[in-house]
Write a structure and sequence with these properties.
The chain is an alpha/beta fold and 567 residues long. Helices cover 31% and strands 12% of the residues. The longest helix has 26 residues.
Length: 567
């Protein structure tokens, strides 16, 4: 029996309506008001990380050279060390040694595997260190400013529900763990290895809003009281003030720089968390050190736990670091001591995060000369580590959390001072390194203190400025109190077991899956036959399981077909 005209019309309306729903949903992604093309929750990013891992395993089966099992994992983070920082830092390294610079080699330049990491946060094209570090250490991308939690929470009225991280995975399988940084140990990048919070600034209790203090601990307390922080074998960096352990003013010699990154979170609740940490470790060999001499004299080979806080806030830039016994140790020295504490024959290996954190801070204030020196110091730390471990059983990764707005430009001659001018002397001088934004704009403008004529109208001729000053700022094109990060991809270098998984351009959260797979810990270990001694779990490489989007489309099309025949 043929359907009536009314029924045919109704059927057409149903079809048109359903198609409109589908088209409008797609259109919300393509144009108009933005809708995320995915859920952005922890489950989505974990599935995404596993999906890329399976794809790479199709190219590089884990039985091949470079895969296998990493007893130890060391990840080096050059905070803010984008491609321009790598290139100029390499040249600067050579020029410090009296060479031309362009042909110089960083200690990780020859790592056999490299890739590119996409650094955006779930809510920002250009990210911050909290969201990027969370991605690298948990396998879950999140919002700007969030640490160790997925994107869905709010900072004012919810308890931080954390996502697990690489240190938790490591401790669960008997690996020793540690962090080394030149920032405060409560700062964004190191905090992402142990903390769960909706605001990266909650480093001590005074920065936590009163209405949520009974729901979440500040970051310093989480390190001392909560796992995995309270189980870490090594904690080295700055940040005594956040722990209520600041030293007297007469012992402080650090040169003071400007910028929001220099702000200090000073504990006011009367607690000394360093003492609390020592009490919690009273039944194990443990030590707290606060200067170079104490670190270098510590019997690290016999220690179970080592905490070192070498500055009230961030540690000093390498160029101005007090190198005396009473001063601050270098990043390379801290790295060496950390590895010596972590290496134990009776353990299942170790996981160590080392951050050259002040590359970022120097860029924020347009201090290019300080930033490049910090790149060189990170390189020295990597070199020190390479001399202490065996790449047959240790995966080493070197990367950045994000880039900066620094540019490497002009047509300077070969061997020209990388911090110098970008052209020949007979041309109008401008610098090889400039910034898109930051305080360097104002530093190069004529003000009331300038009493000389200028052929550049309102600008100070750059060749007349004292460019050797510690706080000299390179020119920026737009004024901001602090220069911004850059949004381009960053490089990832890898060597050792599992390093063959680093290839192509991938989401930043994939880095956690490389460490998980190679280290036989956490969510990806089930895909590594060398870990499980059996075939990978179902749904591995070559799986035909549909994605959530494919499944939704299939259900929608099935509904359309049923309605068509119903009417």
């Amino acid at each position: 029996m043929r359907p009536s005209r009314a029924m045919s019309s109704l059927r057409q309306l149903v079809l048109i309506g359903l198609l409109c729903v589908l088209i409008c949903d797609i259109g919300g992604v393509i144009g108009g008001v933005f809708r995320s093309p995915n859920r952005d929750d922890a489950l989505f990013w974990r599935q995404q990380g596993e999906s890329y891992l399976k794809r790479i395993l199709q190219y590089e089966p884990h039985r091949k050279s470079g895969a296998g099992v990493a007893r130890n994992v060391i990840i080096f983070i050059g905070d803010g060390m984008g491609i321009a920082s790598l290139s100029t830092g390499r040249i600067y390294k050579g020029q410090l040694a009296g060479r031309s610079g362009e042909e110089e080699v960083l200690s990780f330049d020859h790592f056999e595997n490299t890739g590119f990491s996409k650094t955006y946060n779930t809510d920002r094209q250009v990210p911050d260190s909290a969201g990027t570090a969370t991605a690298m250490f948990t396998g879950v991308k999140t919002k700007y400013g969030f640490i160790g939690v997925d994107y869905s929470g709010t900072a004012t009225n919810e308890v931080a529900a954390g996502v697990s991280n690489v240190m938790e995975w490591a401790q669960a399988v008997g690996k020793r763990t540690g962090i080394v940084t030149t920032t405060r140990v409560t700062h964004a990048t190191p905090a992402a290895t142990f903390a769960h919070t909706y605001d990266r600034n909650w480093e001590c209790e005074v920065n936590v809003p009163a209405n949520v203090r009974n729901k979440t601990k500040d970051i310093a307390r989480q390190l001392v009281e909560n796992a995995p922080g309270n189980k870490m074998n090594v904690i080295l960096g700055g940040g005594r003030s956040s722990f209520g352990a600041a030293i007297p003013d007469h012992l402080k010699t650090a040169f003071r720089f400007n910028g929001s990154m220099e702000k200090v979170c000073v504990r006011e609740d009367g607690r000394n968390l360093v003492k609390d940490w020592l009490v919690s470790k009273k039944d194990s060999p443990a030590a707290y050190v606060w200067n170079t001499a104490e670190l270098m004299n510590a019997e690290v080979d016999d220690l179970e736990y080592l905490m070192g806080l070498f500055a009230d806030t961030h540690m000093s830039y390498e160029r101005v670091r007090d190198t005396s016994d009473g001063g601050e140790p270098s990043l390379a020295d801290m790295t060496e001591k950390a590895i010596r504490v972590l290496k134990r024959k009776d353990s299942n290996g170790f996981v160590l995060m080392v951050e050259g954190g002040r590359i970022d801070h120097a860029h924020h204030q347009n201090h290019a000369h300080l930033a490049l020196r910090e790149v060189v110091e990170l390189d020295r730390a990597v070199e020190r580590a390479l001399g202490m471990v065996d790449l047959e059983d240790t995966l080493i990764m070197v990367t950045a959390d994000h880039s900066h707005s620094m540019t490497f430009n002009g047509y300077p001659d070969r061997g020209n001072d990388i911090l110098g001018f970008a052209n020949r002397p007979d041309k109008l001088p401008y610098e090889t390194i400039t910034y898109a934004n930051g305080p360097g704009f104002q530093a190069h403008r004529i003000n009331d203190s300038w009493d000389q004529p200028s052929h550049l109208d309102t600008w100070i001729p750059v060749e007349t400025m004292d460019r050797s000053a510690l706080d000299y700022r390179h020119l920026s094109a737009f004024y901001l109190g602090d220069e911004t990060h850059g949004g381009e991809d960053v490089a990832v270098f890898a060597s050792g077991p599992g390093s063959s998984l680093v290839r192509g351009t991938f989401e930043q959260n994939y880095i956690a899956y490389v460490m998980s797979y190679a280290g036989c810990m956490g969510p990806a270990k089930r895909f590594n036959e060398a870990c499980m001694h059996k075939a990978p779990a179902t749904g591995g490489a070559g799986s035909t399981k549909k994605s959530p989007i494919q499944l939704s489309i299939s259900i929608l099309l099935l509904a359309v077909a049923k309605l068509y025949y119903l009417f």
